[in-house]
Amino acid sequence: MLPAIRYLSQNSLQGLQLTTHDVIASIEHLFFAKIQQQAWNAPKAVITPPDGRYMMATLAAVDDPPLLAVKALVLNPENPKYELASINALVTLLDSRSGLPLAIIDGNWVTAIRTAGLSAVAAKRLARPDASIAAFIGCGVQALSHLRAFTELFQLKRINVFGRGAASRDAFCRSADKMGLSVITTQTAQEAIQDADLIVTSVTLSPQLVPFLDARWLKPGAFVTMTDLAAPWLSESMPVLERIIIDDLEQEADMPKPLINPALVHGDLTGLVTGKTAGRQSENEKTAFVFRGLALGDLAVAELAYRRACEQSQGTLITS
């Protein structure tokens, strides 16, 4: 008899109440499994039609527990016109030995939690532990997931916010206010960035995007996480960053266009977690995490959610 497939909707996933520390631990576990050849991560497969859509699939597997995760995602800048999220995705979870399906998981939730989780893993090692001011350029789903993650890791007192969409900016500011944070909305991106300890950029990608962020605005000791492929950052300003980590050197080598000049890259997240690559070296060092997204992160979050959902009898069981 085939096992029941567990469907985990966004509502059931939010009910699991996973912490940032839970997510970090799950991601770090898979990085160590990877160097022991017990987990595997395939480079992203990407399709970019000329109309501005971004289609992507990720694949990762682990032997303990035996799981394989596949995520399919579509980013369409036109979606908001139809009151749809810009990004929609689905994750399927299989037994990595038998291939039997185990779960279908809301991919939007996984993407948000995984992306903030990867940033949190990097921030543990690249940001100053006394960081108290965070800046957010872009105010959508990723901004909110990063805000929640970083408030668990750092004693944030204030956030600076710059966003071009009034509705999403105001909603984000209300969420931050409910968390007890002082919120300042700025007229320019430079105002938001220049005195911040932590900077999160999550600008929506589009063919019309013109870089407008300058790394020379950063103060000594700042840490930036660029969830948007560094697309809004001026490439000529990137050399001021003294330590840049990407998510995966193997994946990056397989991409037709590099995120940034490879000569500026100090290593990847696996090296950072396992100690092969050094983290922050001084109080004044300007550091950055620039990333495309990593299939191992999707697997880590999907595995954690699936395990907790089974333990708590959450989700909907689909039987044949």
List the helices and strands and how they pair.
Blueprint: E1 5-8, H1 10-14, H2 20-35, E2 39-41, E3 45-47, E4 54-63, E5 66-75, E6 87-95, E7 101-106, H3 107-126, E8 133-137, H4 141-153, E9 158-162, H5 166-178, E10 182-185, H6 189-193, E11 198-201, E12 223-226, E13 243-246, H7 249-253, E14 265-268, H8 269-274, E15 287-290, H9 295-312, E16 316-318
Parallel strand pairs: 1-7, 8-9, 8-11, 9-10, 11-12, 12-15, 13-14, 13-15
Antiparallel strand pairs: 1-16, 2-4, 3-4, 4-5, 5-6, 6-7
Descriptive report:
By secondary structure, the protein is an alpha/beta fold. 32% of the residues lie in helices and 26% in strands. The strands form 2 sheets. Strands 1, 2, 3, 4, 5, 6, 7 and 16 form an 8-stranded mixed beta sheet that branches. It has an 8-stranded parallel beta sheet with strand order 10-9-8-11-12-15-13-14. Helix 2 crosses helix 9 and helix 3 crosses helix 4. The longest helix is centred in the middle third of the chain and has 20 residues. It is globular.
